[in-house]
Amino acid sequence: MSLADELRAKLIRNFNTAQTEPFERAPRYSEQFACLTDGTAARKLGCSLSIVAPGKQACPYHLHHHQEEMFIILEGTGTLRVAGELLPIAAGDVITIPAGPEYPHHILNTSDAPLKYLSLSTREYPEICEYPDSGKHYAFTRAEPGKQRFAAVHRADSKLDYWDGEP
After folding, report:
1. Over the stretch 16-55, which tens digit does the pLDDT of each residue have?
2. How far apart are CA 113 and CA 115, in angstroms?
3. Are 121 and 67 within 8 A, CB to CB?
4. Is residue 82 classed as helix, strand or coil in its secondary structure?
5. pLDDT, tens digit (0-9, with 9 covering 90-100), for 64-110
6. Who contacts 105 (Cβ-Cβ below 8 Å, separation ≥6)?
7. Is the dihedral of CA 123, 124, 126, 131 positive or negative?
8. Which domains does the chain show, CATH number per domain?
9. What is d(CA 57, CA 60) in angstroms, rounded to the nearest whole number?
10. What is the pTM of this model?
11. Among 44, 49, 70, 149, who pairs with 143 as Cys (CB 3.0-4.6 Å)?
């Protein structure tokens, strides 16, 4: 393999030719998904492609405590639910979501055609996400190659005492 081929493999991904994987959780969630930074040299940025089916969404309403996100709408129209408001979005829109409790968010495909967008994020770990609609918290770390990452989901009313199980 030439140096040019090695560099291309480490540095370049094409979202038009990326192999997507389906994700389905009826009745609300349905998307085709591809992580564009897996296997690249990227360390601090993540990027993925989402194609959300009409009338569906890719994830629950949530907020990040450490990671910032940016969404670039490539095709279609939909709705950004952010901070309790519903904002129309369309191809060409660039959406920035800072970390913190002020901007819980998710993207809804409220149209009758697929909604295609890029999700970019900072890779800041450990991360804690909150889900205002369900009252959950999700704490996780990044997985190192060949190792399992730490991940825990709980609700505030089900948490353990700090000393639980300690001698």
Report:
1. 999 999 999 999 999 999 999 999 999 999 999 999 999 9
2. 7
3. yes
4. strand
5. 999 999 999 999 999 999 999 999 999 999 999 999 999 999 999 99
6. 61, 62, 63, 69, 80, 81, 82, 83, 97
7. negative
8. 21-124 (2.60.120.10)
9. 8
10. 0.91
11. 149
The pair of structure tokens assigned to 99 is 């970390």
Stretch 109-135: mean pLDDT: 96
Choose among 29, 31, 76, 63: nearest CA to 49.
Answer: 31
| Interval 54-60 mean pLDDT | 97
CB 91 within 8 A of CB 77: yes
Under DSSP, the state recorded for 64 is: E
Residue 141, SS3 per DSSP: coil
